[in-house]
Amino acid sequence: MRHTEDILLRTSRIGKKFGGLSALSDVTLHIQRGEIYGLIGPNGAGKTTLFNVLTGLYQPSAGEFQFNGAPYRAGKPHVLARAGIARTFQNIRLFANLTALENVMIGRHVRTRAGVFGALLRNRATRDEERAITERSRELLSYVGIEKPGQTLAKHLSYGEQRRLEIARALATDPLLLALDEPAAGMNATETASLKTLLQTIRDSGITVLLIEHDVKLIMGLCDRVAVLDYGKKIAEGVPEQVRKDPAVIAAYLGGGDE
Amino acid sequence: MEILLQQIINGLVQGSIYALVALGYTMVYGILGLINFAHGEVVMVGAMLVLSSLTAMLGWGIPPVLALPVSVMLAITGCMALGYGIERIAYRPLRHAPRLAPLITAIGVSIVLQNLAMMIWGRDYHSFPQLFANTTHSFGGAVINDIQIIIFIMAVAIMAGLMVVVHHTRLGRAMRAIAENQHAAQLMGVDVNRVISITFMLGSAMAAVAGLMVSANYGLAHYYMGFLLGLKAFTAAVLGGIGNLRGAMLGGLLLGLIESLGAGYIGDLSGGFFGSNYQDVFAFLVLIAVLVFRPSGLLGERLAERA
């Protein structure tokens, strides 16, 4: 059994209702520092809902979660971003009309200080900070493998590059937990393979990764541990080999018809 | 020819004031998709604050060199607080309400401010005290005075400053990110409410300066002055493409020119039937024409410039 300090995120009995519909109920799980944790389940199982709760977009109807030792309940995305949770979206949500570099620079927002007066007066500290932000953002662009110039508008990047840019923007917040909502969606085999390498590099740099994915092969080959959601409930959790053999999982998902 | 030059000068000076006010409309629209119809009243409050504090200080024997900056700072601070308050009270609680709701509260706030101003400052015109000899310079048959020169230079400087803030600072980046996608910006750690508050305060600070300029230019201020000025600045913002900063500046200057040239020539063109008192008609003809023929405004399609 691991120590509590090794646990980065712990949810306790999280529930979320939309009207009368229960999208999540009693979801209790924990994510350890430094692992890649996969979240799988059939369409509509509640994966994205759980993501939205953990990143503060939704307020849970029941339960709470602890992140890095502190409890969170109310939905305040910028507070969670500050606490160290960063995410990407299933449908890419970049700032389309900002440049690639500016997109990443926005991610640095949370870790920098300069206020209104600094912005207006353009004092030394502000200029130094801007320079540091720009430099770090350029590094991140090349870290995720975007070769195009930073001045390219985000909407002019290719699909795969846009996905990578989202990851760079999330990394810019210096997250403890990087949450990726279907990063491989729409990617071809080559792009998926290089995404896998990128995620491993990120994990090895000490950032914990939470991954929602439909690509079971990717999940099984990449994740240290996996949880399976079905109808808003967690039906299995464990290392990939173990989960793959779980009868409940096979019934719900892997063996369940069209998937 | 002298008339043409003179009307261009007048138009540019008046237009630079419209542009400052139009920026306030367009910044808020860019970020919230909301038209802050109370913005014109903020200009009026700015003018009133400058005038009353300036008159009071001059009455106490404080020299103009000191009194003017102090009263301007007072008006800017007052208007920033007002802008912050308007957003907190009238708009933030309605952030997720149907779009008509904040429009109605905007008109409500506008009426409340007009009436408060009437109660505080009365119904009379207040005249702007003469602070220095306002020298008139003439060239090419046209004249321009010191106040007009100062207004134009100040307006251009403020607009340039705003462009630097929006395009080259952390705050401006946050503003543009919110305009693009509020949710994603929040998840990057941008405190959306804070940035929206700051946007309102920046717009209101510019409105205060515009209030000073209008009252200095015409030598008068009145509790009702914000209404027409606000509508015209809104027209300027629509003309340039609402939500677009460069559009607001361009629209302001163009509207000033159209009005001024229209007023200068309408008498000749109509054989003396209409006089220059029909000046205000031009602004609204422009508004109608833009809404009919190019609702997105002159620069409206270039969403990248939104702030």
From TrEMBL, chain A:
<dbReference type="InterPro" id="IPR003439">
    <property type="entry name" value="ABC_transporter-like_ATP-bd"/>
</dbReference>
<dbReference type="GO" id="GO:0005886">
    <property type="term" value="C:plasma membrane"/>
</dbReference>
<dbReference type="InterPro" id="IPR032823">
    <property type="entry name" value="BCA_ABC_TP_C"/>
</dbReference>
<dbReference type="GO" id="GO:0016887">
    <property type="term" value="F:ATP hydrolysis activity"/>
</dbReference>
<dbReference type="InterPro" id="IPR003593">
    <property type="entry name" value="AAA+_ATPase"/>
</dbReference>
<dbReference type="GO" id="GO:0015808">
    <property type="term" value="P:L-alanine transport"/>
</dbReference>
<dbReference type="Pfam" id="PF00005">
    <property type="entry name" value="ABC_tran"/>
</dbReference>
<dbReference type="GO" id="GO:1903806">
    <property type="term" value="P:L-isoleucine import across plasma membrane"/>
</dbReference>
<dbReference type="Pfam" id="PF12399">
    <property type="entry name" value="BCA_ABC_TP_C"/>
</dbReference>
<keyword id="KW-0067">ATP-binding</keyword>
<dbReference type="InterPro" id="IPR051120">
    <property type="entry name" value="ABC_AA/LPS_Transport"/>
</dbReference>
<dbReference type="InterPro" id="IPR027417">
    <property type="entry name" value="P-loop_NTPase"/>
</dbReference>
<keyword id="KW-0472">Membrane</keyword>
<protein>
    <submittedName>
        <fullName>ABC transporter related</fullName>
    </submittedName>
</protein>
<dbReference type="GO" id="GO:0042941">
    <property type="term" value="P:D-alanine transmembrane transport"/>
</dbReference>
<dbReference type="GO" id="GO:0015192">
    <property type="term" value="F:L-phenylalanine transmembrane transporter activity"/>
</dbReference>
<dbReference type="GO" id="GO:0015188">
    <property type="term" value="F:L-isoleucine transmembrane transporter activity"/>
</dbReference>
<dbReference type="GO" id="GO:0005304">
    <property type="term" value="F:L-valine transmembrane transporter activity"/>
</dbReference>
<dbReference type="GO" id="GO:0005524">
    <property type="term" value="F:ATP binding"/>
</dbReference>
<keyword id="KW-1003">Cell membrane</keyword>
<keyword id="KW-0547">Nucleotide-binding</keyword>
<feature type="domain" description="ABC transporter">
    <location>
        <begin position="9"/>
        <end position="256"/>
    </location>
</feature>
Automatic annotation (TrEMBL), chain B:
<dbReference type="GO" id="GO:0005304">
    <property type="term" value="F:L-valine transmembrane transporter activity"/>
</dbReference>
<feature type="transmembrane region" description="Helical">
    <location>
        <begin position="281"/>
        <end position="300"/>
    </location>
</feature>
<feature type="transmembrane region" description="Helical">
    <location>
        <begin position="98"/>
        <end position="122"/>
    </location>
</feature>
<keyword id="KW-1133">Transmembrane helix</keyword>
<keyword id="KW-0472">Membrane</keyword>
<feature type="transmembrane region" description="Helical">
    <location>
        <begin position="221"/>
        <end position="240"/>
    </location>
</feature>
<keyword id="KW-0029">Amino-acid transport</keyword>
<dbReference type="InterPro" id="IPR052157">
    <property type="entry name" value="BCAA_transport_permease"/>
</dbReference>
<feature type="transmembrane region" description="Helical">
    <location>
        <begin position="66"/>
        <end position="86"/>
    </location>
</feature>
<keyword id="KW-1003">Cell membrane</keyword>
<feature type="transmembrane region" description="Helical">
    <location>
        <begin position="12"/>
        <end position="35"/>
    </location>
</feature>
<dbReference type="GO" id="GO:1903806">
    <property type="term" value="P:L-isoleucine import across plasma membrane"/>
</dbReference>
<dbReference type="GO" id="GO:0015190">
    <property type="term" value="F:L-leucine transmembrane transporter activity"/>
</dbReference>
<keyword id="KW-0812">Transmembrane</keyword>
<dbReference type="GO" id="GO:0015192">
    <property type="term" value="F:L-phenylalanine transmembrane transporter activity"/>
</dbReference>
<feature type="transmembrane region" description="Helical">
    <location>
        <begin position="195"/>
        <end position="215"/>
    </location>
</feature>
<feature type="transmembrane region" description="Helical">
    <location>
        <begin position="42"/>
        <end position="60"/>
    </location>
</feature>
<keyword id="KW-0813">Transport</keyword>
<dbReference type="GO" id="GO:0005886">
    <property type="term" value="C:plasma membrane"/>
</dbReference>
<dbReference type="InterPro" id="IPR037294">
    <property type="entry name" value="ABC_BtuC-like"/>
</dbReference>
<protein>
    <submittedName>
        <fullName>ABC transporter permease</fullName>
    </submittedName>
</protein>
<feature type="transmembrane region" description="Helical">
    <location>
        <begin position="247"/>
        <end position="266"/>
    </location>
</feature>
